[in-house]
Structure formats: structure tokens, C-alpha cells
Amino acid sequence: MRLNPSNVFACGRSGLRVGTAAPAAVAAAAASATKLALKEARSCSSTSSCSKSQDGALSECQERLSECSTVSSLHASPLTASRAQILDDGPVELQDLHSLYTLGEELGTGAFGKVCRARCRSTGHDFAIKTVLETKGPHSNDAQEEISAYSELRHPYIARMRAFFHENGAYHMVLDLCKGGDLTSVIKAYRSCAEPSARGTQPRRSGIPSDLVARYIWQMLDGLTYLHESSFIHRDLKPDNYLLESPDHRSPLQLIDFGFACRVGTSQKLTRVIGSSYYAAPELLGGCYDQTSDVWSLGVTCYAMCADKLPFFGATHKEYIANVKLGLHSMGEEEWLQRPPELKDLILRMLAHDASARPSAKQLLAECAWLDAICVGRAGKQAACCAIS
Predict the structure, then answer these.
(1) Which of 141, 197, 276, 336 meets the CB 3.0–4.6 Å disulfide criterion with 6?
(2) Residue range(s) of every CATH 1.10.510.10 domain in the chain
(3) Which CATH superfamily is domain 183-384 in?
(4) Is residue 349 a contact partner of residue 303, using CB atoms and an 8 Å limit?
(5) Residue 148: enclosing H or E segment and its boundaries?
(6) In the prediction, which pLDDT does 113 show?
(7) How many CA atoms lie within 13 A of 361 on its CB side?
(8) Dihedrals φ, ψ of 206, to 5°?
(9) What global pTM score does this model have?
């Protein structure tokens, strides 16, 4: 099945979810973010030996140190109308969104909200502001869960929330602006490539080059390991939810869209069927799953990077879901002919149909010597020194 716009469970896209007024849980998340911010500042102030990535594609340590040094406080009071929770740049007067940011072009829209470009009036820096509307219903706390996740998570490959507002019946999340587009656009960019051969010019097999795929997988697994060890599950991993920091295809990935994310215990099983159906694990479709379902979704994403199509086929959406549940994939040997056998093995391990036999993100990162040799030696270790533990 050719890679195409994702079918999404529930209402609207995951990045455009809805919620009710912020409860104490959001304030608690803000308080937790305060501790993380102060910890980050202290950690960075004592770190002087970080070195930059050799090829400059990963986030530079000096940028991280400078970024961390600006963190001085976080207003942890409960949200009320026209009050903002500020995550960096020190204490500011609590004002409404429009007094702090000038809103620009829309970057994306959905049934219940939108994402737009915004410029900070005081610094001139550009951000992405995600707006979700309040509503009532059984899943009215999704926006609060997203804010909670963004407030706590600090990792080089996870998008950073700088502030959030609650006013006029909506939540507004101020996020770092990624200017390189999403991973789907990268896959499409390599779709029609051609390269010369001894017999002339022949079309190259679809998919992203293996060295770049390895780079992306390492970043994805590193971010997912951190996410899971922080007791979160994403539940909507797919190419659309990975953005590049800059137009350079070798720039760092940023995981976004925590509208379906939630906290989960180590042995806890979840039952809510949610996410993008074409990337959902069979056990998620069955309504009994845990964090390893994210690993499956990552496997589908990685296969799409290699083959420019999904690993399962169905003439209809119903048939596709049935094949996923049965484990009847459509992956042929031709997709792997120009790929390292280690890459094939890694992706197939992610797509283990039996969730109990599927490795965790941490296991995959630790056990794949091929991936380690390609990525860690030249970039990964240097990025790790800037990550928040």
C-alpha cells in the first residue's frame, strides 16, 4: 500500500485534540517542569566538555547550554483566563497570548484547532503555536495530557514547548518551529530519484538512502527510549509526526503531537483504541496494549522510509486492519535487495506480531551493533551529553 495520508481514529488529527478547563493535573505538570528546568540549568552550568557533532546535523551542545542558561523560573500557578505558563526566558508578566506573540500564517488545520506560525514580540523569534479547543466528553482531558507531556519532556529529539496559555475556551501551546517539514515530505523527495548506471539512467528504488534511514532510526529510538522511561506512551508515531529542524535532510528529527499521549505504568495495559490506524499495532487494535505498541508504529514508519509504502496491504481500510491483526504482511524480498541485512532485521524485530516478543526501544538501541557503529561514534554520544536524564 503506497504511503498516503493517515487514517486517524477518534475525532480529528492527533495534533488537534480538544479538552476541558485545566485541572490541578496541569498545574502539577507545570510544577514538575519547574524542577526539570532548574535541573537542566544547573546541569548545563556545570558542563563544559561537550563537543559538537562532526557533521553539525545534531543539535549543538553550545546551543543547548545557551538555551538552558536562560531558564530561570516557571510560573506554576493553576491556569486561569489570560494566564500563561512560561517555560523559559525567566519570569514575565502574565499577559494574554496576543500581547506576547504576533500570529502569522496557518501551518495546519483540523476539525478542532490549528497550528500557526507566531513571532515573539519581545525577541523577534519565530515559533509554532498549536491551538486546541475546549469541549466536554469522555476524552475531554486529551489537551491536558498533551500539555502535561510537553511540560515534562526534555530531549534533543522531542519538540520543546516554551509556554502555554489557556484563554477564550482554548489552549495555546508555544512550540519550537521546525522549518524542514515532516518525514513524509522526505520520503516523497526520494520517491522519483534516478541515478546513472552502466546501461544508462535507471530509476532508483523508492525510499530514503540507508545511511540516512539509520540516522533517523537512531534518533527515533533514542527519543522513544527516553519517552518510555519517563512513563509516557505516544500512541501516534508516524512520519507525519516527525519534523526536521531545518530543510537539510540530515538535520535532527523532532517528535511532535502528544494529543494521544498519556502516562502509563511499567506493566499497565491500556484499552482505548486510538491513533492512526495504518500505523497501529495489532494489540492496540484489539484494545489491550502497552508501550511496545509504540515500537510497532515505529517499525511501520521505518519500513515506509525504506520502501515508500506500508508493510501491509488491503483493498479497503477494513481489509488492511484485518491483515494487521492476522499478521499477514505484504513485505517482499525486493524491498530489501539494496538494503543492509542488519536494517531488515532491525525493522522486522520492531514488527514482531507477538507483542511479548517485540523488543523495547531501549533493547533495540543497545543490541543493534550496526546502528551503533553508524550513528553513535560520530554523533550520538556527543548529543547524549546534552540530554536531560
Answers:
(1) 276
(2) 183-384
(3) Transferase(Phosphotransferase) domain 1 (1.10.510.10)
(4) no
(5) helix 142-152
(6) 77
(7) 28
(8) -60, 155
(9) 0.76
